[in-house]
Automatic annotation (TrEMBL):
Keywords: DNA-binding, Transcription, Transcription regulation. Signal peptide: none annotated. It comes from the Bacteria. Residues 5-60 form the HTH deoR-type domain. This is Glucitol operon repressor. The keyword Protein biosynthesis does not apply. One of its GO terms (molecular function) is DNA-binding transcription factor activity. PROSITE patterns: HTH_DEOR_1, HTH_DEOR_2.
Length: 269
C-alpha cells in the first residue's frame, strides 16, 4: 500500500531535522516515489517554514552539529559567494602561494582567480577539477582520506601534507561564527585542516556569507586574534566591527571595489 502523503511528509520532515540535509534523489529512492513527488513535498514543507530548498534537495540551518552535503550547499547563496570571491580577488597577487579549503565559498574564489598565475594548495576535489587544466596554476593537493559527502580530503595525511608548506594567504570558511564563541564548525576532521593551515599561513582570511553569523557550532576552529580579516557579503552590525577591532581583525562587508585593496595589517602576526 502506498504511503499517505501526510505520513511521507512527516517522515521527510523528521529525517531532515535529524540529518540536517537530504537530496531529492535519495528521498525518492527511500520512499519509492518520483523526484517530482519529493519536490512537491519539499515545497510544502518550505512553505511551512520547516526547511529550505536547494536545487538538488533541502536543508536546515539549525543545530550545532550540522553538516550539509556539498552537493546541496553548492547550489545556494551563489550571488553572495560571488560577491565574497570578487572581494578576495582584490587582495590576491600574481605569484602568491595560497590555500583554499573545501568550502563552496572558496570554490567561488577559485573561479574568480582562475586566470591568475598562482601556486594553489587545496583539499577540495571540485577546486582541483576546476583548475586542473590551467597551465597558469601550480596545483598542490593535500591527499588523505576522501569524504564523499564533502568532496574533500582530510585526516592525518592531509594535515601532514599541509605541515610541509607555508603559504602567503589562506582562505577558509566555517559552519558558523559568533562574537562570543568565535569561529566554529560541525565536522572535527575538516576543522583540523583549517586549524593546521592557520598555523602555516602568513595571512589568514575567513570567508562567510551572511547566513553563518551569530550562531555557534560543535567544534571551535579559532578566535578572531588568529585572523587578518573576514570577508562577507552584507554589512555587519557596529557591534561586530567594535568587537573584532580589538583583535586587529578587519571586516570587509562593503560592496566589492574595482580597485585593488590590501588587508595585510597583521601579515607578521
Amino acid at each position: 500500500m502506498a504511503m499517505l502523503s501526510v505520513t511521507r511528509k512527516q517522515k521527510i520532515k523528521n529525517l531532515i531535522l535529524e540529518r540536517k540535509s537530504a537530496t531529492v534523489t535519495e528521498l525518492a529512492q527511500m520512499f519509492d516515489v518520483t523526484d517530482e513527488t519529493i519536490r512537491r513535498d519539499l515545497r510544502s514543507l518550505e512553505k511551512e517554514g520547516v526547511l529550505m530548498r536547494s536545487y538538488g534537495g533541502a536543508f536546515v540551518q539549525t543545530g550545532v552539529e550540522n553538516l550539509i552535503d556539498y552537493s546541496i550547499r553548492s547550489t545556494v547563496y551563489l550571488e553572495e559567494k560571488k560577491i565574497i570571491a570578487e572581494k578576495c580577488r582584490q587582495i590576491i597577487q600574481n605569484g602568491d602561494v595560497i590555500f583554499l579549503d573545501n568550502s563552496t565559498t572558496t570554490y567561488a574564489i577559485a573561479k574568480a582567480i582562475q586566470d591568475m598565475r598562482l601556486t594553489l594548495i587545496t583539499n577540495s576535489l571540485p577546486i582541483i577539477n576546476l583548475l586542473s587544466q590551467k597551465e597558469n596554476m601550480r596545483l598542490i593537493c593535500t591527499g588523505g582520506f576522501f569524504s564523499l559527502k564533502e568532496l574533500a580530503f582530510y585526516g592525518s595525511k592531509a594535515q601532514k601534507a599541509l605541515e610541509e608548506y607555508y603559504v602567503d594567504k589562506a582562505f577558509f570558511s566555517c559552519r558558523t561564527l559568533s562574537i562570543e564563541q568565535g569561529v566554529t564548525d560541525s565536522n572535527d576532521d575538516l576543522a583540523q585542516i583549517r586549524k593546521t593551515i592557520i598555523r602555516r599561513s602568513k595571512e589568514r582570511y575567513l570567508v562567510a556569507d551572511y547566513t553563518k553569523f551569530n550562531q555557534a557550532s560543535f567544534i571551535n576552529i579559532c578566535g578572531y586574534d588568529c585572523l587578518n580579516a573576514i570577508f562577507t557579503d552584507r554589512p555587519l552590525s557596529q557591534e561586530w566591527h567594535t568587537s573584532l577591532s580589538k583583535y586587529g581583525c578587519r571586516i570587509y562587508d562593503d560592496p566589492p571595489e574595482n580597485k585593488s585593496t590590501t588587508a595585510n595589517e597583521k601579515s607578521t602576526k
